Amino acid sequence: MRWTNLATCVLVGAVFPLAGAAQSSMPDLSGTWRAETPDGPQEVVVRADSSASFGDDIVRWRIEGDSLHLALGDEWMVYKFELRRNTLTLSGGDLEEPLALKRVGPATPRPAGVEVPPAPPPDRRATL
Fold it and tell me: What are phi and psi of 20, to 5 degrees?
């Protein structure tokens, strides 16, 4: 899948913790992330309020175990993720090969007046 399709639909805390899980045990994905792609560098801003931005698109995200769930319209797309220091690697979902993103700075605030999109129903999940 092309990066622009993924990022436009996706991205890529009040990260929604699992029931009973301590929020401090959740990885911190907030920040500005950059991926080198065939189309050139692409940036995604992941915020602690469960929103992420790519260009003018705002999406919702959450973590469950080692999976990153991204709201794409009325469905959750699920990616396996691995966070090592400032490198976030996504795989599965609609990606043909793993995608590595580097944290290059802090998250910028969501623009004033722009709401976090609603979450799709829990039963609307694409699988890994």
Answer: 80, -5
